[in-house]
Design goal:
Helix content of chain B: 25-40%
Helix content of chain A: 25-40%
Strand content of chain B: 25-35%
Number of helices of chain A: 9
Shape of chain B: globular
Distance between the termini of chain B: 61 Å
Strand order of the largest sheet of chain B: 11-10-9-12-8-1-6-7-13
CATH superfamily of the largest domain in chain A: HUPs
Structural class of chain B: alpha/beta
Largest sheet of chain A: 7 strands, parallel
Largest interface: A-B, 91 and 80 residues
Number of domains of chain B: 1
Largest sheet of chain B: 9 strands, mixed
Strand order of the largest sheet of chain A: 7-11-6-1-4-5-12
CATH topology of the largest domain in chain A: Rossmann fold
Number of strands of chain A: 18
Oligomer: heterodimer
Radius of gyration of chain B: 22 Å
Radius of gyration of chain A: 22 Å
CATH class of chain B: Alpha Beta
Shape of chain A: elongated
Number of helices of chain B: 6
Number of domains of chain A: 2
CATH topology of chain B: Rossmann fold
Order of helices and strands of chain B: EEEEEHEHEHEHEEEEHEEEH
CATH architecture of the largest domain in chain A: 3-Layer(aba) Sandwich
Structural class of chain A: alpha/beta
Strand content of chain A: 25-35%
Chain lengths: 334, 267
């Protein structure tokens, strides 16, 4: 499957919008994409699909896009897998970018694999780091086996090199209203017959809890919280600190938190200033999601627990004793 | 609706409870998983459960398709014990090293050979690679639609299903024409546990083993040769931090902790 890779130039990101609002991860992709396009000496472009979303194209330029391919059509208002894949594939075939980045969201991870088949190219999932090697290839660092193993993946002979990136991996660039860019309107011909899987409704549910995304402080709990009968003290501590509540897979399985609050390989990647882990042993599939935290605090009764290897500050102790004390002190010091 | 024939794709994976036992051989750069028991990928069990429920409600057959080394026969047998009617294992050295593109291509050929299906169910992702890429890719190779992250499936008629798929902070309702590939999440059901008689009976049953030749695969499109992505290095992540352990009575360590957090300027 050797193909002419030289004719492919430029870095593209898929800009995801829901109900006329850009997702944070799309802006983060502009941050990560810019680093790559600078190294390669090429333009950074965004593809934006939707209906009446031209305002968002300007926003993408303010956040770093040199060019925006804007595709507006009533049938593209909601995400439609068949139509979105067709439009993205056609644009890539026409313009031949060397790299295409998508957010590892419910939509990005549904769209990217389908597009990769149509383009007969490689796709790696939820990378944690991207580099350019001496042969101008994209080195994609991806976690496997719950973060226990990191693999370096390249796509030597096919283009574009495609990858999905979790929210929180790249930093959102600063907004610059004075940036200039090129908005290209693209006409597409889509009919209802093109939509074999048709999204008829998108329902947004208010987050039941303060979201992990963008949180400055996160208090997380794990299986060890069964010693105190669940998450009540975790929530109390979070409340005192104005923090979001997170947790591990076992905490989800116990029904203490929802999947939205799960941190790690199959959950969210977080970047708070402070992370406090309570009764969490620190299996890789959890810790892989917390490494972007500025300061990691861990409380666990087992001194050999792996969480202490990633912690900046560790307390070996029983959550039944340490937690009430934490609550008392934070209440006192406000 | 008279009946619905269901194909369920399953994969044998290392037991997620023992992932910490996986190591990398520093010289050969291969993943050592001898100490880790192999199981059916957890979400694939939810897919199988949904398939069995569909069969029990509408009639039809549930056929399990898997790809893997010879020992993946155990996963197929467990699927039969849960109640699948038939199991097919794609097993050939030529499939080794496949990425999601060549895996999906190979599965699509096998499924075309089985034929006569109304719906293909998969777990949304596996615990080993957790890419979630195979279901949409399989669908595209079969030229049928797909829905991922399904938490609820209702059949409107033989040609149409209504699927709820969960997204971040909400859900989507998708009407999908059949046949389709539907990838399910854990919210969809609780998988049954095989009965003793089911396990005993499964041991008597035949598992069809198909090679690359059996599914008439093009050599350059399967296994490593058919994979556009290549793993050029693997390593164990270096994640250590210079941690400070705070020791003493709870009141003291907590005071010390808060002092440190103030010094670091994070509270």
């Amino acid at each position: 499957m050797v193909r002419e890779t030289e004719e492919y130039k430029g870095v593209w990101i898929f800009a995801e919008q829901r109900k006329g609002k850009l997702l944070e991860v799309s802006l983060e992709l502009l941050g990560g994409g810019k680093e790559l396009s600078n190294k390669l000496g090429v333009d950074l472009s965004a593809i934006l699909l939707g209906h009446n979303v031209s305002k968002l194209a300007k926003e993408l330029i303010a956040y770093g896009a040199d060019k925006v391919h804007l595709v507006s059509h009533p049938l593209l208002e909601l995400y439609q897998s068949d139509a979105y894949a067709k439009v993205v594939t056609d644009l890539v075939n026409q313009h031949k970018p060397e790299i295409l980045l998508l957010g590892a969201t419910a939509i990005g991870m549904d769209l990217a694999p389908k597009v990769a088949v149509k383009l007969k190219t490689g796709l790696s999932a939820h990378v944690v780091k991207l580099e350019i090697d001496e042969k101008r290839r994209l080195r994609q660092i991806v976690p496997g086996f719950g973060g226990k193993v990191m693999a370096v993946v390249v796509c030597p002979t096919c283009r574009p090199q495609m990858t999905t990136v979790r929210p929180g991996v790249f930093r959102k660039p600063a907004r610059d209203e004075s940036r200039k860019g090129n908005i290209v309107k693209v006409d597409v011909d889509i009919t209802e017959d093109d939509l074999r899987a048709r999204t008829i409704q998108m329902v947004e549910e208010k987050p039941k809890e303060k979201p992990l995304e963008g949180a400055e402080i996160i208090v997380a709990g794990g299986w060890g919280m069964r010693a105190v009968g669940g998450f009540k003290p975790v929530r109390e501590l979070a409340e005192l600190l104005g923090a979001s509540v997170g947790g591990t897979r076992p905490a989800v399985d116990e029904g203490w938190i929802t999947e939205e609050q799960m941190i790690g390989q199959s959950g969210k990647t977080i970047r708070p200033k402070l992370y406090i882990g309570l009764g969490i042993s620190g299996e890789m599939h959890h810790t892989v999601g917390i490494l972007g935290s500025e300061v990691i605090v861990a409380v666990n009764n087992d001194e050999s627990a792996p969480i202490f290897q990633v912690a900046d500050l560790g307390i070996v102790g029983d959550v039944r004793e340490v937690l009430p004390q934490l609550l008392k002190e934070f209440e006192r010091t406000g | 609706m008279s009946f619905l024939n269901v194909i369920v794709c399953i994969k044998q994976v290392p037991d997620p409870q023992y992932l910490s036992k996986i190591t990398i051989d520093p010289i050969s750069k291969t993943i050592r998983r001898e100490d880790v028991p192999a199981v059916i990928n957890p979400l694939d069990k939810h897919a199988l459960e949904e398939g069995l429920r569909i069969r029990d409600e509408y009639g039809g057959r549930v056929i399990v398709v898997s790809m893997g080394p010879p020992q993946a026969e155990l996963a197929c047998r467990e699927a039969l014990a849960m109640g699948a009617d038939e199991a097919i294992l794609l097993c050939d050295k030529a499939f080794a090293g496949a990425d999601t593109l060549s895996t999906s291509y190979s599965l699509s050929l096998a499924i075309k050979m089985v034929g006569g299906f109304n719906v293909i169910l998969c777990g949304n992702e596996t615990v080993d690679g957790s890419t979630g890429q195979v279901p949409p890719q399989l669908a595209d190779f079969l030229n049928i639609p797909h829905v991922t992250r399904a938490r609820k499936i209702e059949f409107i008629d033989e040609g149409m299903a209504r699927v709820e798929r969960s997204i971040e902070y909400g859900y989507m309702v998708v009407k999908v024409t059949l046949p389709a590939v539907i990838a399910v999440t854990r919210e969809i059901n609780i998988p049954r546990i095989p009965t003793v008689s089911g396990i005993l009976e499964a041991h008597q049953r035949e598992i069809k083993v198909w090679t690359a030749k059996d599914i008439e695969a093009e050599e350059e499109r399967i296994g490593l040769a058919g994979s556009p992505t290549q793993v050029v290095d693997i390593f164990s992540p270096e994640i250590g931090r210079k941690g400070e352990m705070l020791r003493g009575a709870p009141e003291e360590v907590v005071k010390l902790l808060i002092q440190r957090l103030h010094e670091l300027g994070v509270i």
